[in-house]
Amino acid sequence: MLQRPSSVGLRQSRSSGSPPRSARPGAALLRPSLSPLRAAAPDGSAPQQPPPPVRWLPTLLTFAPAALGGALFGYDIGATSGALSSLNSAAAGVDWAGPGGLSSLAAGAVVSSSLLGALLGSGAAFAGGEALGRRGELITAGVLYTAASLGEATAGSLPALLAARALYGLAIGAAMHAAPAYIAETAPPSVRGLLISAKEFCIVGGILAGFSLAFALAASGGGGGGEGAVAAGGFAGFVGGLPAWRVLYGSAAPFAGALTLSALASPESPRWLALAGKGEGAVAASLRRCRGVRQGEDENVEAEAACISRAAAEAAPTAAADASIPALALLSHPRYARPVRLCLGLMLAQQVTGQPSVLYFAASIFEGVGFAPGAGAAGVAAGLGAFKLLATGVAVLAVDRAGRRPLLIGGVGGMTVALVALAAAQAAAGAGPPPLPGAPPTPAAWGAVAALLAYVAAYQVSFGPISWLIVGEALPLAVRGRAAALATLVNFGANFGVSLALPSVQAALGPAGTYAVFAVIAALSTAAIAAGVPETKGKSLEEIEAMMMGGERSGGGVD
Fold first, then answer.
1. Cβ(48)–Cβ(38) under 8 Å?
2. What is the pLDDT of residues 446-497, one digit of tens each?
3. Is the pTM of this model over 0.85?
4. N or C: which end of the chain has fewer CB within 10 A?
5. Residues 6 or more apart from 334 whose CB is under 8 A from it?
6. Residues near 440 by Cβ (< 8 Å), separated by ≥ 6?
C-alpha cells in the first residue's frame, strides 16, 4: 500500500535536492500538499503533526470564482423553468411565441441551446483550456456569462434568444471545465473534499435561486399587471410591463460580473503554473496567496511549493508521451480504458436517467398534474429546489462516511422506484377529468410531488455529487485533463440530447410513458454500477490509480 511521506522527510529532501519517493513520476501532483494529513501513519506508528489550521478568508475568496461559476449554471436551470411558463403565457410580451405559446420544438430549443453551447464550450476547453489556465478560463466564463445574460434579457426574436442562450452555454462549459481543477489545485488539503462537494451545493443553490425568483415574479402578478396578471396565470409584466422571462434571465448579469471580478482578483493555480514551467518562485507566490501567508511565514507552504515544482518536472516526460494518444483511443488503451470507460459511463447515466432535464420542466410538470399555472406551480418548483439543496447537504456530509459505492447503488435504485411511482401518478392524473379552475390539487398531483421529491433526493445522494467526485478520483494523472474534458463533453452532450427530445417524447409517449422509460434506464444503471464501480473511500489518489490501472478491484481503504 502506498503511503505519504512525512513532512520531515519532505523538508530533508528539499534541502538535499533529492526528490521524495513516490509510486510513479508526478505522483505528488495527485496531492497538492505533502504536509501531514493524518494524525498518525496508516500503521499507527510514527505519529505526525496535525494539518495546519485553515485560513478561511483567503480560502473562500479563492473558492469564490468556481462557486459563482457553478451557481450561475444552476440558476439557469431554475430560471429557465419559470421563463418557459412566462413565454407560454399571455404576458410573454412578444409576438414570436405564438398565440398558444412556444411549440414543443421551440421550448426544447430554448432549453437545449444553452446545453449545446456548453457542449461547444467543453470542446473548446478540451482544445485550448490548458493554454488559458484555470483562472483564465474562469475570467472568460465570467465575461461570457455577463454578455449572454444581457443578450437573453433584451432578445427581440426567437433566434436572438437562442443565440444568447448558446453563448450562456459556452460560459457554462468553460466554468464547469475549470472549476473542479481550480478548487482541487488551490484548496488546503484538509478541506479539499469539502470545497469540491460545496461546488455541487452552489449549483443546487443557483437552481433554488432561479426557482424562487420565478415564484416571486409569478406570485406578484407583476406590479400593476392587474386583471391581466390573473389571466396570464401570474406571469404578467414586472416593473414597467417588462415580461417575467426577461427579468429572470437579466438577473444573472450582476452575479456574472461578480464572477469576472473575483476571478481577476484570484491567484492562478500553482499547479498550472508548475506544469506551464513558470518556475518555483511563481508557484510559491501563488500558493502563498491561496493560503493567505507571507513569504517565510509557513514552512509547510514553502515545502509544498517545492514539491509541486519538482513533481511537475518529473511528470513532464510521461505527460508529453501520453499527450499524443487520441481522445477516443483512451477508451481502448491498455492502461486507461477501465477508468475512462467508468467515468464516461457515469456521465452518460447521470443524464439519461432524466433528472437534470426534468428540472428544466419542473413548473410545467406540476401544472400538468393539476397545480395552478404560474404562481402555484412555480411555488412547488421553488420548494423542490429547497428540498434538493437540503438533500445535497446530506450527501456532502455522508459521502466520506458511507462510501461512494453504497450511495450510488442505493441512490440510483431509489431513483428507479421513484420513477415508477411518478409514472403511475402521471397515469392516474391523465385518466381523470381535467381539474376545474381554482380546484385544489388532486391526490394524483400530491402523489407526483411525493414521487418527484423522492426522485430528487435519491439523485442528490448518488449521481449528483458522486459521479463528478469519481471523475476527479479515478482518472489517471497523465490523461486527467483530456479525459475529464471528454467526460464533460459526454455529460453536456447527453444533457443536450435528452433535453431537446424530452418535450417531443412526452408528446408521443405521454408523461407516464416518458418516466417509465427513465425508470428502465435507471434500473439498468443500478445493475451496471453494482457490477463495475469500485469503492474509493479512504484511498489515496495513488492507491485509486493503481487499482484502476489493473490492481485491486474494489473495497478496502486506508486503515
1. yes
2. 788 788 889 989 998 899 888 887 887 777 766 777 788 888 888 888 877 7
3. no
4. C
5. none
6. none
